[in-house]
Amino acid sequence: MENDMNPEVIGALLMVLNQEEEEEEQVRRTIAEIAVAELVEMEDGIGLADQQALWVPVRVFINDYHTLGDPCFKLHFRMSRGLFESLTGTLHNHLVRTGKLRRERTPLQDVVLMVLWLIATPDTFRSVALRFGVNPGTLYYFYSYIIEALRELAAEYIQWPGPEERAHIKAAFARATGFPGVIGCIDCTHVTITAPLQDPGQHINRHHQYSINVQAVVDHTLTVRQLHVGEVGSMNDNRVFRRSPLYEDLLRDQPEIISPDEHLVGDGAYTLTNFMMIPFPNNGHLTEEQLNYNRRLSQCRVRVENSFGHAKGRWRRLKFLHARNRDIVVDHITASFVLHNFLVREGEPMLEENELARPININEVPPEVEEQVVDDPDVPEDQERRQEAAEARGAEKQWFIMNLLND
């Protein structure tokens, strides 16, 4: 019996598949046109009808960007040409593997170039589209699927350290600061956004701005080891932590996550537990031993602030994100931190170990803000019991470390 299919049948099937692909792409492009119309109106005050009537394509030689020398290329696109090519290859492999890149109507290198410019600058979609010779809808289409791909790569680039890596991180912090057992520094940062359509009041933070509160755990190299994105700006850091998957893992003392002699370091907004060391509250009557403990802890903890500074300084759209679509917000923030880790992994150091040992200046530590801790009514009783036990062990551990540092 003949196993080979009739060439005419194969041709017909391919034609149907190509038609379905084109229809799917057309749907995505139409959605992009609608989304960018609202975005351009927010950024520039130009409505959809005006945009379509006024937009005139400009001829741009995009190869001029590709031929820029390395120092200039890095200035504009935040990475060397070699790392850019590595990133483009990584994205190409991922998009092909997930079936999202079947044909390249626009070279992927050009697409990644445009999206990097968008993420790295506060420029409007209108101005970036003009710079690269495309219309805003096409630019938004490129932007949405590239940041989605980067978010999908987060599991590869943002990873919790295993036992050997944790031992290396502990040793680096201990050599630099003397503070033992530190496997990461935790804090939150606010990404300011446009007022969302759903529950806008919940997104207003203590600075009276609409924002998303983003949690990160960072190691001694400023690599992000855990990222939790999506909580509203009104939520305090401690509650964001309790709602993150990391909290439950730490509370259960899972050996692949944390060992008894290990802990994170955070500021006074967090609750003291055996897996979270925080400073002694400064009531004006701290002993020299307690002050020494606080100084050494702060020298470790400030590195998460350094990491946020690097990320927001390089990927400047994190300073203000014109977006109402929550999925786009989450994708953009996650994509920015994936790019941050990508650069560290590919050999671009953010912080040398000798810098880690430098005593911090007072202006490097942001003033502590007292936040009202609101109990979550939906916390199960067994979790509350484990939390109380962790707090008791944390108090003992804090005093043990304080005495150890002063021996």
Automatic annotation (TrEMBL):
Residue ranges crossing the lipid bilayer per the database entry? none
| Subcellular localization, as worded in the UniProt entry | Nucleus
Its needed co-factors are:
a divalent metal cation
GO molecular function terms listed in the Swiss-Prot or TrEMBL record: hydrolase activity; metal ion binding; nuclease activity
Segments of this protein annotated with the region Disordered = 367-393
Query: InterPro entries given for it?
Result: HARBI1-like, HARBI1_dom
Q: Which UniProt keywords apply?
A: Hydrolase, Metal-binding, Nuclease, Nucleus
Q: Which Pfam families match?
A: DDE_Tnp_4
DDE Tnp4 domain span:
186-341
Similarity annotation: Belongs to the HARBI1 family.
**What name does this protein carry?**
Protein ANTAGONIST OF LIKE HETEROCHROMATIN PROTEIN 1
- Recorded source organism is Frankliniella fusca
